[in-house]
């Protein structure tokens, strides 16, 4: 069943808040896109059967260690599992780390990540 705009907005807000808290940045940093395949994928083979999955892709500035990224992944998996009833093992989180110079937002190249940019 396709997601309505309000459901997407509510999920985007929850994702953004968790991202900002775990990744030690402002809520104004993540741009969140929710693509709904409308019951037509994505899929992944698991235990020999083709299963529905949710895929979360996070493009992040370099600087966070694996443990911090894992905390975010676990938080996002729990959030999406609770919202969708998908088993946690059917939710995939992928990170791509970028040099800040590869990101342009608010009219400028992004600065290096520092934990001091976290919201109080």
Q: Give the class from helix and strand content and strand pairing.
A: alpha+beta
Major β-sheet, in short? 2 strands, antiparallel
Main sheet: strand order: 1-2
- Please tally the helical runs, counting DSSP H or I stretches of 4 or more residues: 2
Strand runs, count: 6
Q: Note the gap between the termini.
A: 38 Å
β-strand percent reads 15-25%
Radius of gyration: 15 Å
**Which of globular, elongated, flat, extended, rod-shaped describes the shape?**
globular
Helix-strand pattern = HEEEHEEE
Mean pLDDT across the residues is 92
Bin the helical content: 25-40%
Q: In terms of per-residue confidence, which ranges show pLDDT below 50 for 5 or more consecutive residues?
A: none
Quick overview of this protein structure:
With about 120 residues, the protein is an alpha+beta fold.
Protein described:
This protein has 120 residues and is of the alpha+beta class. It has two helices and six strands, in the order H-E-E-E-H-E-E-E. The chain has helices at 5-22, 66-84, and strands spanning 43-46, 49-52, 54-61, 91-98, 104-105, 108-109. The strands form three sheets. The protein has a two-stranded antiparallel ribbon. Strands 3-4 form a two-stranded parallel sheet. It has a two-stranded antiparallel sheet with strand order 5-6. A hairpin with a 2-residue loop joins strand 1 (43-46) and strand 2 (49-52). Helix 1 (5-22) runs antiparallel to helix 2. The protein is globular. It starts with a helix and ends in an 11-residue tail after the last strand. 9% of the residues are buried. The model has no long low-confidence stretch (mean pLDDT 92).
């Amino acid at each position: 069943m396709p997601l309505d705009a309000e459901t997407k907005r509510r999920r985007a807000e929850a994702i953004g808040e968790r991202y900002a808290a775990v990744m030690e940045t402002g809520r104004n940093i993540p741009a969140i896109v929710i693509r709904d395949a409308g019951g037509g994928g994505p899929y992944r083979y698991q235990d020999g059967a083709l299963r529905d999955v949710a895929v979360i892709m996070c493009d992040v500035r370099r600087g966070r260690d694996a443990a911090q990224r894992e905390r975010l992944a676990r938080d996002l998996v729990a959030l999406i599992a609770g919202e969708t009833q998908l088993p946690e093992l059917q939710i995939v989180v992928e990170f791509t780390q970028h040099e800040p110079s590869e990101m342009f937002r608010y009219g400028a190249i992004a600065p290096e990540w520092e934990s001091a940019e976290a919201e109080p």
